[in-house]
Amino acid sequence: MNVTIKDVAQRAHVAPSTVSRVIADNPRISKETKERVFKAMEEPGYYPNAIARSLASKMTYTIGLIMPRSAEDAFSNPFFPEVMRGISVVAHNEKYDLLISTSGNEEEEKQAVINMVKGRKVDGIVLLCSRTTDELIPWLREEKFPFTVIGKPLDSKGVCWVDNDNIGASRLATNYLIKHGHKEIAFISGSLEFVVSLDRLDGYKLALEENNIPFVKELVAQDEFSEDGGYNAMMRILKQKKPTAVVVTDDIMSFGVIRAAIDYGLRVPQDVSLIGFNNIPLSAYANPPLTTIDISTFELGVKSAELLLKILKNKDYMADHIIVPVKLIERKSCIKR
């Protein structure tokens, strides 16, 4: 037989409304009363009904995650599962559930967010990327709905976001190759519609400028954040120029770059050195093992969730941002000229 709030109230010698307030973690209820109610819940095996809990607290205890592409594409890149793992650890500790939305394009993405917000399905949202032409951020800001972004927005006014210093990280990667004697350095990234790609391109250009190395547009290419995307971008570059090193802003793309180099008759790293980004687990087992920039993907997820929970607990929380440090992981894909 189902145990009701009235049964718990009777056991705890309080009113049913007091039990509801305890479930909602109302700060006006004393610690002693809360302990008595929780004890009464445990004895008969009472489990708060999620809908009743939502009605009592006006909270769903659910966080919405907005994926920037279809589920098939997103989960093929280890970045997204790892960042979600970080979010889920924080959510679990705070007794929140996750609602994940995938979409095929930006319009579907926006509609998914509108459904979450207007349908009161979630208390807050984490956007897993930041675009240069982002419609979600201004809409959420106008709705005054709690959200955080993984990735620095172009317009960060009134937005809580978490990111790496992507300009500094790309500058670090490029300078590493320059210190190894390379001057003909290519740059391969995802689409420039993503702010992260723009920032890393700026970091690459900055390192070249600081070392008096001219920027050559034929050494720069963008494509999908995938192995095939890396392959296609590298092939386009090799048809025009032959770089001695490549900065690739995603490890999965790096695997495609290596494949393209081999198909073109080049050896890695003897003919072309390579440095990637993200330090995914597979990068240590690539042939050759990949030198890469570790962006602490798990920590990006953790910090984005923690920031969102601060907003949910304090509606007056001011816009804030967190920069997660990066580090260079040296392996075998780079050699000195």
UniProtKB/TrEMBL annotation:
Alphabetized GO MF terms: DNA binding
Keyword Iron-sulfur attributed: no
PROSITE patterns: HTH_LACI_2 (PS50932)
InterPro entries, A to Z: HTH_LacI, LacI/GalR-like_sensor, Lambda_DNA-bd_dom_sf, Peripla_BP_I
Record domain HTH lacI-type: where: 3-57
Keyword Transcription regulation recorded: yes
Alphabetical keyword list: DNA-binding, Transcription, Transcription regulation
Protein name as catalogued: DNA-binding LacI/PurR family transcriptional regulator
